UniProtKB/TrEMBL annotation:
Its EC number is 1.1.1.85. The lineage of its organism: Bacteria, Bacillati, Actinomycetota, Actinomycetes, Kitasatosporales. Transmembrane segments: none annotated. It is found in: Cytoplasm. Mg(2+) binds at D219, D243, D247. One of its GO terms (molecular function) is 3-isopropylmalate dehydrogenase activity. Residues 6-340 form the Isopropylmalate dehydrogenase-like domain. The record marks Y135, K186 as: Important for catalysis. Belongs to the isocitrate and isopropylmalate dehydrogenases family. LeuB type 2 subfamily. Pathway: Amino-acid biosynthesis; L-leucine biosynthesis; L-leucine from 3-methyl-2-oxobutanoate: step 3/4. Keywords: Amino-acid biosynthesis, Branched-chain amino acid biosynthesis, Cytoplasm, Leucine biosynthesis, Magnesium, Manganese, Metal-binding, NAD, Oxidoreductase. The keyword Metal-binding applies. This is 3-isopropylmalate dehydrogenase. Coiled coil: none annotated.
Amino acid sequence: MARSINLAVIPGDGIGPEVVAQGLKVLEAVLPADIKVETTRYDLGAKRWHETGETLTDAELERLRGHDAILLGAIGDPTVPSGVLERGLLLKLRFAFDHYINLRPSRLFPNTASPLAGDPEIDFVVVREGTEGPYVGNGGSMRTGTPAEVATEVSLNTAYGVERVVRDAFERASARPARKLTLVHKNNVLVHAGHLWTRTVERVGREYPDVTTDYLHVDAATIFMVTDPGRFDVIVTDNLFGDILTDLAAAITGGIGLAASGNINPGGEFPSMFEPVHGSAPDIAGTGKADPTATVLSVALLLRHLGHETEAVRIEEAVTADLAERDGTARSTDAIGDALAARVAG
Ligand code: ATP
Ligand code: MG
């Protein structure tokens, strides 16, 4: 456990800087006095791209590599063509720092309205593969723009890549009370990749006899996520299915203002990056309406990743308590951050 944290901060666009400021406030408040945080700010995102045409230079990538972890607000702006910042910044970081785990805990907090009927029990974690699948950019288009166009988008799945994410998911499942792992894929149709995933879960699962495993096709998984979310504990899935399932998971747990995520390089060779699931929300930027809770929960994931479990739990308990006391009165971004900082310090 490190006695100091050398943190890179990418506030980004829209509400990004607003929510990140609250995340840092809570981070400072939760750490004991003998653990120092040193933050370095990187001004990346839409403004930078407009001014210089740059998204992330190789020199910046090199400097980012030297940090213990990265906290990101949000990247994206309607004035930047779609894909420029995603590919040039977010995916570049993910591939350069080998963030092969995309971690999304999904929990329905008390006093938080789920769009699902009744009072569902929701407490599961999605472990989404981060560096393979259809996201590798392997494919192309022939006769582009003509009626005879043919486009392919190859989904890459390697034994190495699948095994390491499956192993990570088993580790996480074995550390949770329910000890259950669900593989989500579509192995009746996507037979090549699907069977690799299925075989890998079976094989690695033999090393984890205390973890129960099961399998769902992704279409069935979307149904269960709505009709019986309590059946899930840890879900392991590929990059594309994970992308879709995690948005659904955020929706059923009362929304985007609360969902945290980590792009993780588990071995620590490269810095992992933590960020709220929501985007830059330009519609509410500058109004003080952004809920910083997702960012604060991302800080908890960051601390847990760096070995500061006690502080991570303290933040999660503070969020739970804060949500339990919400009565519908609107509070500003700052006010929520202050309340959470006071709770974790007290
Ligand atoms: P991006 O392309 O950056 O993902 P987006 O518009 O697709 O942006 P979000 O930025 O996540 O998606 O915003 C979706 C909606 O949710 C918006 O109406 C926004 O105001 C709202 N929203 C997003 N984040 C928050 C937050 N932290 N607190 C309150 N509302 C939010
Ligand atoms: Mg979006």
